[in-house]
């Protein structure tokens, strides 16, 4: 592998030289947005959809990205090329930029753009064969009428606290409920339950991010004849489901075999989950932008 290069505000720099100011409002206030994107064998999976979501997030918080979406596409593609990686994880970050210590974003004259490309595997491959155990977190999801989950912002402390609970419980992921007790998502993943021919995932208004992988699985499931829908459900519905799985850019599609000590289904990854993962891993090399 060549020396890692980070895109930082118009140029590629060595990893150790990729620095931002301590006055950047992304650091001071979590004022910014990001996307996590995967590259599979030289194909950036659904880059267009990721960038559309990025620019929608920016518009929602009145953040001006200093590049057009077409220019950003080229920046991301070139970031993969210069790092000479065929399969990788991309972290695209846009901060509000350098300002003063006040909270007013008008002191920030220009947003800062960072693109990091490096190898990443969230879960070990054997876990896709065995499935994972998870627990419910006591930390609740931010209210979606206060901070929309559609805005993928740098304000990720809510998710970090849930991940801490997973770590303390000795499991790789934890389940987050909203203030009404409905299941929202994991710390970094969407959740699906399977009941017969039904696949159900929480709708965005309960606090779930409308993930790119989540949407791809909804499409695949419908093509395979399942009734795939967005619907609210509780932990009880998770406990008694035939199958449960998580989806995400880093996680892909991974089976959950136990939740809060309740064994899901047979205690092994189910047929529906395995079939969806198999199909998903076929499309990721074709659906997207070639490097």
UniProtKB/TrEMBL annotation:
- Name the Gene3D superfamilies on file: 3.30.470.10, D-amino Acid Aminotransferase, subunit A, domain 2
Q: Which cofactor does it need?
A: pyridoxal 5'-phosphate
Q: Sum up the protein's function in the record's words.
A: Acts on leucine, isoleucine and valine.
Q: Which InterPro entries match?
A: Aminotrans_IV (IPR001544), Aminotrans_IV_CS (IPR018300), Aminotransferase-like (IPR036038), B_amino_transI (IPR005785), BCAT-like_C (IPR043132), BCAT-like_N (IPR043131), Class-IV_PLP-Dep_Aminotrnsfr (IPR050571)
The UniProt entry, under NCBIfam families, shows: ilvE_I, PRK06606.1, PRK08320.1
Q: Does the keyword Transferase apply?
A: yes
Q: What SUPFAM superfamilies does the database record attribute to this sequence?
A: D-aminoacid aminotransferase-like PLP-dependent enzymes
Reaction(s) catalysed by this chain, per the record, are:
L-valine + 2-oxoglutarate = 3-methyl-2-oxobutanoate + L-glutamate; L-leucine + 2-oxoglutarate = 4-methyl-2-oxopentanoate + L-glutamate; L-isoleucine + 2-oxoglutarate = (S)-3-methyl-2-oxopentanoate + L-glutamate
List the source organism.
Answer: Kurthia gibsonii
* Transferase found in the keyword field: yes
Q: Which UniProt keywords apply?
A: Amino-acid biosynthesis, Aminotransferase, Branched-chain amino acid biosynthesis, Pyridoxal phosphate, Transferase
Task: Give the Enzyme Commission number.
Answer: 2.6.1.42
Note the PANTHER family from the entry: AMINO-ACID AMINOTRANSFERASE (PTHR42743), AMINODEOXYCHORISMATE LYASE (PTHR42743:SF11)
Similarity comment: family membership? Belongs to the class-IV pyridoxal-phosphate-dependent aminotransferase family.
Gene name, per UniProt, is ilvE
A GO molecular-function annotation = branched-chain-amino-acid transaminase activity
The cross-references to Pfam families, in alphabetical order and at most eight, read: Aminotran_4
Per its UniProt record, what CDD domains does this chain match? D-AAT_like
Metabolic or biological pathway, per its Swiss-Prot or TrEMBL entry: Amino-acid biosynthesis; L-leucine biosynthesis; L-leucine from 3-methyl-2-oxobutanoate: step 4/4; Amino-acid biosynthesis; L-isoleucine biosynthesis; L-isoleucine from 2-oxobutanoate: step 4/4; Amino-acid biosynthesis; L-valine biosynthesis; L-valine from pyruvate: step 4/4
Q: Indicate what this protein is called per its UniProt record.
A: Branched-chain-amino-acid aminotransferase
